[in-house]
């Protein structure tokens, strides 16, 4: 007579250790993959925010400079101010200032459709200042367009097509043909933004010496 005997088999200690090691490796890989995805998402979000700020600055400059007009002003002390200025003695850190047309007046306020604006670099922030009135007023609003700015340099193209590092003209109504802004944000490469100024009636041509003309 044959009798059957059931045997109970379990995992050995070595098998348990191997299974735990495999599980640990899979868990670590999953955590690393999740962290990599999260870091990538954060980096992409930061880059998109930086691009949005750069676009906001470019859009603001383009909209203002495209509507710049030759309209001299007077400061709060009554002194004449040219239509386009490099810097501003009354505004710390001013890069340039001018008068623009097309200031929307949706509430029909008792004011002109012209607006005096200036772009300022202050404490690492590039700002847009605006005045409530053209003459005899102090700046009222300041909008921060870009932060963590380490340097900002401006070049001006004159009516002869030459780029200059300064803007000074005997004619108070004179406007540059174009403005180039070189701006560097911390941790990023320098960016050069180029804008036409006012209504362009002709394309500026580089000056040619008389003895080189044919």
What does this structure look like?
- The protein has 214 residues and is α+β, with helices and mostly antiparallel strands.
- It is built from one helix and twelve strands.
- It has a domain at 57-104 and 112-196: Roll (Pili subunits), CATH 3.10.610.
- The chain has one helix at residues 13-66; strands spanning 68-69, 73-74, 80-81, 84-86, 94-100, 115-122, 125-130, 141-146, 149-157, 163-164, 178-185, 191-196.
- Strands 1, 4, 5, 6, 7 and 8 form a six-stranded antiparallel sheet that branches. A four-stranded antiparallel sheet has the order 10-9-11-12, with helices on one face. It has a two-stranded antiparallel sheet with strand order 2-3.
- The radius of gyration is 31 Å and the shape is elongated.
- The model is unreliable at 201-214 (pLDDT under 50).
Keywords:
four-stranded antiparallel β-sheet, elongated, 1 helix, 214 residues, six-stranded antiparallel β-sheet, Pili subunits, alpha+beta
């Amino acid at each position: 007579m044959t009798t059957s005997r059931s045997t109970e088999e379990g995992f050995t200690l070595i098998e348990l250790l191997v299974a735990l090691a495999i599980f640990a490796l899979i868990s670590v890989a999953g955590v690393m993959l999740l962290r990599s995805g999260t870091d990538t998402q954060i980096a992409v979000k930061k880059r998109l925010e930086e691009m949005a700020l750069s676009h906001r600055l470019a859009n603001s400059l383009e909209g203002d400079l495209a509507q710049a007009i030759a309209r001299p002003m007077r400061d709060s002390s009554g002194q004449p101010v040219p239509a386009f200025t490099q810097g501003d003695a009354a505004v710390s850190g001013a890069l340039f200032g001018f008068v623009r047309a097309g200031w929307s007046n949706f509430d029909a306020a008792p004011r002109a459709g012209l607006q005096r604006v200036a772009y300022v670099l202050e404490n690492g922030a590039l700002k847009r200042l605006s005045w409530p009135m053209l003459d005899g007023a102090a700046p009222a609003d300041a909008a921060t367009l870009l932060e963590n700015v380490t340097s900002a340099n401006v070049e001006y193209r004159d009516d002869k097509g030459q780029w200059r590092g300064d803007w000074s003209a005997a004619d108070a109504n004179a406007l540059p043909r174009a403005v180039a802004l070189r701006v560097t944000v911390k941790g990023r490469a320098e960016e050069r933004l180029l804008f036409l100024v006012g209504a362009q009636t002709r394309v500026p041509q580089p000056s040619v010496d008389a003895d080189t003309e044919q």
